Amino acid sequence: MTDWRSKVLEAIDAGQEELLELCSQLIRFPSENPPGDSREISAFIINYLNEAGIGTSIYPATETMFNLVSTLGAGAEDRTGKKLIYCGHTDVVPAGDRSRWDFDPFSGDIVDGYLLGRGASDMKAGLAGLIYVTALLAKLGVPLKGDLSLLIVPDEETGGHLGVPWVLERGLITGTAAVIAEPSGPLNPTIGQKGSCWFEFTVEGTPGHGSLSPVVGDSAIVKAAKGIEALQRLWDIKVDIPKEVQDIIRISQDYVKGSEEEDSLAYQVFDHVTVNIGTIQGGTKVNVVADRCTIQVDSRVPFGVDYRDVLDRARSLLLEAGIESEVKGFGFQGNANWTSNEEPVVKDLVESICEVSGEEAYGVLQWASSDARHFRTHNIPVLQYGPAELSTIHNFNEKAPVWQIIQCAKVYALTALKYLGVEDRES
User: Among 32, 37, 91, 182, which one carries the catalytic annotation?
Assistant: First the structure.
């Protein structure tokens, strides 16, 4: 009988250059979101899969945002009922000030063992791995027992409402498990995320001539500053960690303590509400007392706290600071969520990491949020694993290690073989 495991791994080793070139080509599409135009990169992916004999269904959420679904189906031979979804997003955060990059953010060059460019870590290298492996399994004719679907979405970085949830809510894809190629540690897939509570509030003031402030006029910016200071107390919200996630939180905290600098305090965020003042927009001119100021806040919510309670607490803190303003949620909204270590897809992926790397691997929590929460809302077990230089994500000079790109592709392939199973028959 064909040893599909060895055959697939050998093919990935032999096809490394093709995989890396695919990574580079994806980065060369400047699919920044906003504005979120996925038409060109989607056309490229559709053509790439078509050359491997794989058809693609296109589901436009808007005129410029295309959701893509491609499936390797077991058809009548599917006796397992298992359907694995490979998921990735084509959008990237804006490159920002190009002068602060040491290289062209859309070059896709490979230099000194790193893939360079916006999206290298988040998450075009991982996306390329999923696409490459799907095409490879098709070309090799691997007789999977279940369905393998590739879901590529155009919208994740600005809240993702036109991506994964849009597709799942319409029943355009089904699955019994999912793997998202979001960046992670090479030995530590993320099996859960904190919740999110993005909100904004607008402070009104009274304009006046700048030369008379603070005697004349009432500055909305000064008032907003008091609100910003008050909101820092969201960190102090009491957190009662549910018993069922206490162990994974401890494991995740120990993981961060071991991987960060000795003086890092990042492990504390797993059991606290965090608060980041993301944007401040106020005033009309330097010599005019500001009559309006809008603040947008990114708060991340741990297990044991409901994001709606964070909104309520924010309203109370602003009132205590003398600010009467409507607090409006937007963007990421939801509670902490996770997938148990006991789920077959988690076991299979972790086992695949161990097999490829020769080292111990285990799942951890992530302090950010992602599309994983939408899969869990639809009762689909999911975890994230992808190549990354974590410190460069959403930063200037984003990059990803080549060795991780190759390792992740192998893990994706082995996970599909293990989870879906392979028919015992000659090639």
Answer: 91
